[in-house]
Each structure stands twice: as structure tokens, then as C-alpha cells.
Amino acid sequence: MGWRNNIRCRDIRARCSLTVPVLFAALLFLWILDQSYIHSGTLFKREFYSTLFQSSYRGTPTEGSDWRASSMPKNCDIFSGEWVYDDNLPLYSSCKFAERGFLCHRNGRPDLAYQKWRWRPHGCALPRFDALDMLNRLNGSRVVFVGDSMGRTQWESLCCILLQAVADKSSAKLIHGPISKVTPFLRARFLTNNLSVDYYRSPFLVAGGSDVPARSPKRVVGTLKLEKMGRIGANWHKADILIINTGHWWTSTKTYDRGVYFEMGKQLMRGMKVDAAHLRALKTVTSWVSDNVDFNRTQVFFRSFEPSHWTMAFSRLPLNSSTYRMVYPHAQHLFEALELNSSPAMLLNVTALSSYRPDGHVFNYTRSSVPLDCAHWCLPGVPDTWNQLMYYSLLIRAKGPWA
Ligand SMILES: *[C@@H]1O[C@H](CO)[C@@H](O)[C@H](O)[C@H]1NC(C)=O
Ligand SMILES: *[C@@H]1O[C@H](CO)[C@@H](O)[C@H](O)[C@H]1NC(C)=O
Ligand SMILES: *[C@@H]1O[C@H](CO)[C@@H](O)[C@H](O)[C@H]1NC(C)=O
Ligand SMILES: *[C@@H]1O[C@H](CO)[C@@H](O)[C@H](O)[C@H]1NC(C)=O
Ligand SMILES: *[C@@H]1O[C@H](CO)[C@@H](O)[C@H](O)[C@H]1NC(C)=O
Ligand SMILES: *[C@@H]1O[C@H](CO)[C@@H](O)[C@H](O)[C@H]1NC(C)=O
């Protein structure tokens, strides 16, 4: 964990307080400059401003003012874009469905800018996000998340976003809990809309157990059956919307080092690379979904890997999406598995957009004894965007209540 030692925490606030008069003069100058170049289409301007004047910048008022879902652009890659500062964010402040460990501000994080970045695709303007519209379209539905703790975070985020749209907050309830990292099943009910939002914990998705093949070495305490879907599948395949994710547990620390090996055809796969196992498991999951989920009833999403930033200096700002490039093998496995499987499942391709957000992690603003967390995300924050992009994806596909 070299992160803390390498900390190059760019403390903008401290610098600002020393240079307020200078900045003020610069602001005045830039404003005059801006007025004279107002039609010159300098895209760079917005980024430049948002970097300098974090709390004073407001999102362009014209953009996103069209609320009609019918104005959804149909042929737009909404996952390719950039983060723009938007003072209208976050979508919620306090929320009973967010676990304390992810409430960074409440846990002492002083800067708030990380809550205020809106994702803007390169190729199109999205209508403004409308939580009430989302809630109404979900009327009578069952939304199911299944996966690791990142799936739980997304569940928390969606519940919080929808809660904002509910007039009587007490009508939305946690039916199964508590919200913790070991609870296998969570359910929130939105009574006014007859809506359930569920989360099933299944970090690997495939079946696992301590029934190891005969004559396995003693160090093998359990196996992951790469060709077999986890039992939990029976519980969620009849959802209206299903969001599946995995990735963070496919490491040797979380498998081999714990005595968990891989198994195929009742054979112990000694020496199998974790990456290869991950890919094999994803193939099992995508083909299980194709064979068992009724796509007329269920809209299926696979959410891609959301990168950690353990090796990066802490930053209070997003990275520049036009210059930052990184390859995430974990994400490639999902892309590959989905390509082989021609099901109508949708991809929530959040890898790149999340990779630009080292500022969005929990860092040390949590409750547990973990000294630093550069994997999980603060709420409100980046996971809210995953849910917003899910909403837009549903509108673009325009099936059933989403037409
Ligand atoms: C991001 O990088 C591009 C290309 O180098 C540059 O033009 C732009 O000004 C950068 N944006 C910010 C906010 O630094
Ligand atoms: C996911 O999004 C990134 C960024 O736009 C893009 O480079 C990549 O090709 C996308 N992957 C897939 C499978 O769509
Ligand atoms: C949602 O469904 C309930 C019945 O379950 C109905 O009373 C209500 O009018 C519906 N709301 C919307 C916005 O469709
Ligand atoms: C609630 O939704 C379920 C389907 O999810 C439906 O079977 C049931 O009739 C609905 N209840 C009401 C009161 O609308
Ligand atoms: C899904 O809907 C299509 C068109 O309505 C229909 O042809 C198909 O049989 C349905 N599939 C299932 C599994 O019900
Ligand atoms: C987190 O780390 C920062 C910078 O190292 C430090 O100033 C702050 O006190 C720490 N916060 C907590 C809650 O430990």
C-alpha cells in the first residue's frame, strides 16, 4: 500500500486561500476574454473553468434542459465522453440506503467536488436525468443486482436516487438487511410504486463450495466450479431488470491464497491462471443467462469492471479523459465473453469513465479499520453515474415501460 507514502494530495483549497486576490483578478480577466470569445466554440473553456473554479462553475444551462425521453439520441456511445463539473449535483445528500462506510463527507472528507461531476458523452447531449421519471417507469417492477460489493454500492446508489423522487420517505423501506458487506440478500421496497430493488451477493457468480475433488492437496479448502452457475441464479432470473457484475475477487489473494482453487469437469485445475478462470466463469454466466433468462421479460445488463486506483496519487480532480489511457484485463474478459455470446444483454461499459475518477474513491474516509480504500466509491458519487447510464440505456432501447 504505497499510496499513502506517495501521496501527492493536490490540496487546492489551501493554495486558493493564499491566492484569492490573484484568482479574482484572473477570473475577471477570463470573464472579459470569455465574453469576447463566446461564439468561438472553445470546448476547452469548460474544462479549464471547472478545474480552476470548482465551486463557482455551473453546468451549461442549455444542456440537459430537454426532459423528453423521446429526445434520446439513438446512435450514441454514451460511455465515451468526459466529466464536466455541475453544481446541480449531487442527486441526493443524506440517504438511509447508503452504508456509513461510503458516506465520505460524513466520514470527514472535506472537499465536495467529487460529488459534482456529470458524465457527458462526446457524441450526443443527454436529456437531463429525471429520477421521478425513472421511478414511475419502474412501477410494479423488480430490479435485481447480483455481484460483488460494487454491485451493492450500485444498489445503494439506485435506492438513494429513487428515494429522492419519493414524497413520503418513510414509504420506502429496507425489507431485508442489514446493509453490510456480508449480507447475502438485500431488498428495498418502494411501496408507492410497488417496486422492489434487490441485491444478491455473489462475488464470483459461478458455483463454489468446500466439496473439493477427491485426492486434492490439503491446502485446497474449496473450489470454484467454473462451468456451473451459482445456485443463487434461481432467485433472480425472473427480474424485470437484472444487473450483473463481477471482477474484484478474481485475484490470487482472494482465491489461491485462501485455498480456493478452480474446478472444471470435476477436475482440480492446478496452476490455472486466475485471469483464465475469470474468463471461463464469465462465459458460463453469459451463456447461462442466454439459456435461462426470458429476454422478453427481463432487461439484462452486464456491468463492466470498475477500476481501482491503488497505484495512483490521491487526487481531488478527475483525470483528463482525452489523455488518460489504461487497459484493464478484467474488463476485457467481460467484453470477450459478451462478444462470443450473441444474447440481447446490454453492456454498462463503465470501465473507462470510472478510470478517470481516482478522486471518487473512499480513500481513508470510511468507518472500518482499513487504512485506505482505493477500490470502493464514495456516495453520492461515481456509482450514481452507472445508474444514470443504465436509465439512459433503457430509454435508448425503448422496450415496454421504457418506450
Ligand atoms: C485534456 O487534454 C487535452 C489534450 O491534451 C487538452 O487539450 C485539454 O486542455 C486537457 N483538459 C484539461 C482539463 O486539462
Ligand atoms: C468501452 O468504452 C470505452 C471508452 O469509450 C471504449 O474504448 C471500449 O471500446 C468500450 N468497450 C466496449 C466493449 O464497448
Ligand atoms: C403505479 O402503480 C400503482 C399501482 O401499483 C398505480 O396506482 C400508480 O398510479 C402507478 N403510478 C404510475 C406513475 O404509473
Ligand atoms: C405489484 O407488482 C407485482 C409484479 O411485480 C404484481 O404482481 C402485483 O399485482 C402488483 N401489486 C399492485 C398492488 O399493483
Ligand atoms: C418473445 O417475444 C417475441 C415477439 O413477441 C416472440 O416471438 C417470442 O416467442 C418471445 N420469446 C419468449 C421466450 O417468450
Ligand atoms: C485521511 O488522510 C488525509 C490526508 O492524508 C488526512 O488529512 C485525514 O486526516 C485522514 N482522515 C481520516 C478520517 O483518517
Automatic annotation (TrEMBL):
Residue span(s) of domain Trichome birefringence-like N-terminal: 74-124
GO annotation, cellular component aspect: membrane
Subcellular location as annotated: Membrane
TM regions (residue ranges): 12-33
Membrane topology: Single-pass membrane protein
Domain of life per record: Eukaryota
InterPro entries: TBL, TBL_C, TBL_N
All copies of domain Trichome birefringence-like C-terminal, residue ranges: 126-391
A Pfam family matched in the record: PC-Esterase
Keyword annotations of the record: Membrane, Signal-anchor, Transmembrane, Transmembrane helix
Family: Belongs to the PC-esterase family. TBL subfamily.
Name of the protein in question: Trichome birefringence-like N-terminal domain-containing protein
Native source species: Riccia fluitans
